[in-house]
From TrEMBL:
A Pfam match: Peptidase_S9
Source species: Billgrantia antri
Protein name: Prolyl oligopeptidase family serine peptidase
Keywords noted in UniProt: Hydrolase, Protease, Serine protease
Residues covered by the Peptidase S9A N-terminal domain: 33-416
SUPFAM superfamilies found in the cross-reference section: alpha/beta-Hydrolases (SSF53474), Peptidase/esterase 'gauge' domain (SSF50993)
Amino acid sequence: MKAQPPHRTPATAPRTAPPPSPVERFRRGEDPEWHWLEERDDARVQAFLEATNEESQAWMSPLESLVERLYHGHLARRELAVHGLRTALDHYTYWSETAADADYPVWWRHPNGSPEEASIFLDLQARATAEHHYLELGDMALSPDERWLAWTEDTSGDERFSLYLKALPHGEPRLVLEEIGPELTWAEDNTTLLYTRYDATQRPDSIWRLPLGEGQIGEPSLVLREDDPEFWLGLGKTRSRQWLVLESASKDTSECHLLPALVPQQAPRCFRPREKGVEYGLEHRPGHFYILHNRNAPHFRLDVAEEGDLTPWQPLIDHRHDTTLEDVEAFEWGLAITERDHDEAQVRIRIIEFDAHHDARRDERLPLPESPCSVMLGDVPHFDSRRLRLREESFVMPVRWLEHDLDNDERLVLKSQPIHGNLQPADLCNERIWARAHDGERIPVSVVMRADLAGHPLPTLLYGYGAYGEVLDPWFSVARLELLARGVAFAVAHVRGGGDRGEPWYLAGKLEHKENSFRDFLAARNALVEKGFSDGERIAAYGASAGGLLVGASLNLAPEAFCAAVLDVPFVDVLRTMENPDLPLTTAEYTEWGNPDEADARKRIRAYSPLDNLSPQPYPALFLQGSWHDSRVPYWEPAKLYARLTEMGTARGPILLRTDMAAGHGGASGRFKAWHDNARQDAFILWALGLADKEP
């Protein structure tokens, strides 16, 4: 039975018909969209969510033993006691440790060269255990002299952060501010901390200075305010430690302001005024600023400007049609640049070293362990360091951290993620195939499976995201091993709207091109079947957040393409959300989805918004997950999807809704609860694929 919120009448009420329940109102056409679920303070809403949680729990009860096996199997495969890499700053060496039975890390440090003097300076496990059921660290920042620690934390999941300060080594944490943004940056004067504040829609609209002196905390003062509701502010500091960079950005336009890091009391100076549709970011080496931008260069180019004269920009790396420049990091010796090859959908790290005349004396790309894979520059705090830290992983290679010596090109593996149990990385294989989209475009699809099952059509879990230019580079998952061990193939559709094939890939899946994302996802599904990787009767889909939009819209287009789907905090009420500028993120995302005040944009969004396009079709079994404190995708979006699909009654399987009443957009903050939640979703997937009784 479908859960219904209770209604009551007083004991002394006259004997008349009780008021209609929300379900009855729906049947009578009084609330066909279930918008009453948006009334957070209405007691019926929590009652409704609690009833659906009970309904979901009752349906899942026969699978509870499977959930526990998946959960404990996951624990048995991973290293539970985790020691982070040690990083030496000017005075101390820092690292984190997470105990085998802990949800959160403890942060340690010792004076450089004196490991025997190690001490704890931030114990997140103790803070979570003693004070909060939910704890998310927003940012952690050490003053340049390493005498002050500042951090932000969220204790509800709504992404509203509190600022704490602690004098090191033994000072007590002091709550300084509440309801602020997560980001923090210290100026180089050791007495000025910069942070962001939100406006009413939870947009970081202002940057503030917080002065400290002799243990006293002064009054905050405004540094910069952004009045345009489509822009938000962010903080940073160049690795040279000479400049604070204050960035104002929308989804397609940016503008940077500079503050001298040693004199943060000055007024910020605009580097170059914003220009509609132009994004740029800054890096610095003494004497030069490096500007990564897309002005007349949709795949981005790199220019350089003299520090004393910012007006002329000279080309350093020209725009290329087959490569997107994604990031640049400056060092004393030169630049480390992240590039993405469009054809291979592969990222590389490029090293450029300069001589005294600013001419390149070295220009080469670092080697890859395999392709496709993920590689990124790790934390390298020192401007003069010639030893880079790299993080590498793939679908079949667990995460490893390396140190690459630029002087001799030798590589030292600092740490590799150990994997325990009966399924090792060597037992896996992965392939990159190409699907043909409706318009002829080639869509990359990644597949990972047990090597001994390769060549056979397998039950498959297909994952996708496809928004904001986010890249789904290969990643290793310990939890995924529980599915692979039971004979499931895991596939990723690198659809347009993501950044997997560079900036043009993103542009081809947003605004008026958004329909490409959904068609690409279905093309990926069909290619897996046609090429013999997947059993067409046993393919489940998974999408989270904007990936929930991808999967939800795909189900409306082809409900019989999948036997089941998991939609985790799914963005499915797109039109109504974009019509409400008072919600967090709405105005900032007009350049991603469109502004429905414009007729063409409204028509376009209306044509694909999952909730607006439901019809009596044979939808597959669905597991919907929401979070009560989610400020990005409110709990009512999956709740309304559940209500309307259940009322429609045409699904081929169960429609389940589970709402976490103590979490936000990212789900549970503690790792053990998060892993257990993952096991619950995987149990549903295995049931849908007909593998609930299959053991590894």
